[in-house]
Amino acid sequence: MKRLIIIISSMSFGGAEIQTLEVANGLVDRGFDIDIIVLDSMNYSVSRADKRINFHFMNKQSFIDFKAIKKIRTLLYDINPNSIFLVDLYPTMYFNLAIFPKKPKKNTVTVIHSTLPRDNKEKLQRKIQLPFLKRIGNIVFVSSNQMDYWIKNYKLDEKKSLFIHNGVDIEKFSIYLSDEEKILITKEELGIENSHIIIGNCSRFRVEKRQKDIIEAVKILKEKGYKIKLLMVGDGEMRESLEEQIKKYELEKDVIITGYIEDVRPYVALMDIFVLSSDSVETLSIAAIESLAMKKATVLSDIGGASEIVVDGMNGYRYQPKDYYELATKLETMIKEGKYKEMGEKGYLHALKYFQRGKMVSDYEKIFEKPH
Fold this sequence. Notes:
This protein has two domains: 2-167 and 356-368, Rossmann fold; 170-354, Glycogen Phosphorylase B (Rossmann fold), CATH 3.40.50. The protein is 43% helix and 17% strand. The chain contains 15 helices and 13 strands. α3 packs across α4 (120-133). It is globular and about 65 Å long. The two termini are 15 Å apart.
């Protein structure tokens, strides 16, 4: 039996959590016995996990919780895994503290999901946690652009660094498009007419996600007379602020907020154009890849691995983060020229080539099966 321990900060609704479970579910099917150690108590995404995966919640109470570190040390000893998979810097620090003074095994892996730090607090945390990362034998990035950024800015060992693109079950998403009756029902429930062009977004409502820029762009397009609706799938701490912005611009009939949705496919299926507008953190968005799998033209702020998801002018457009005038211009070009359907088809082929779940799982499996 190939035993693997995964250590992750949380089981919330983010892309890192979804990608981790995609890898774990795929490896379980390939004969791995998997335990996931979660540093906090958040368990929202656990329902996505294969039932053969065991979870252990540390319920940490502080930035460095010595009780949690002791629990991790005990689990590592009792389970005695062949490999360790650490999701981002914080769990990497906890793992190193738990095994101290020993060194990590050669097939220990840390995957890094972020590129630009969101604020000064995160910059400081990186300085604290980087020495722990440099002890790890394999550092995986989810984007080639992101890997280059980290190697250059944090002086990482190129020989220990590689990138593995995030992947999704493309068929699971694309097959939903064949159920036209379900799509029609969802459209009627939301009060969307067939003549509307639907601009969509799926993500947590956080400051760095900048959904406010999408609303600004929609306002510009509405003022020009375009018959569009904005479909925002998600929830979060910025929701009240976004609702105030919508009310200020009198867009209540033009913007739909669904709240948190576990299965986003019925809503992405309605979209003509998918938009992500983040100004930091975002690297290789799972939501954007899922939009490609559902044949949606995609517009991304040009950060992280955006250029690996969107080939500008082929399957969508990229724009400078925070520049909602440029975002509005890109959207208008797609609408005026009727390019979005053709771009969606090309995006689907792009996803098939680069973002298959099976390839992602195989690439991780190769690392975990390295000799100790």
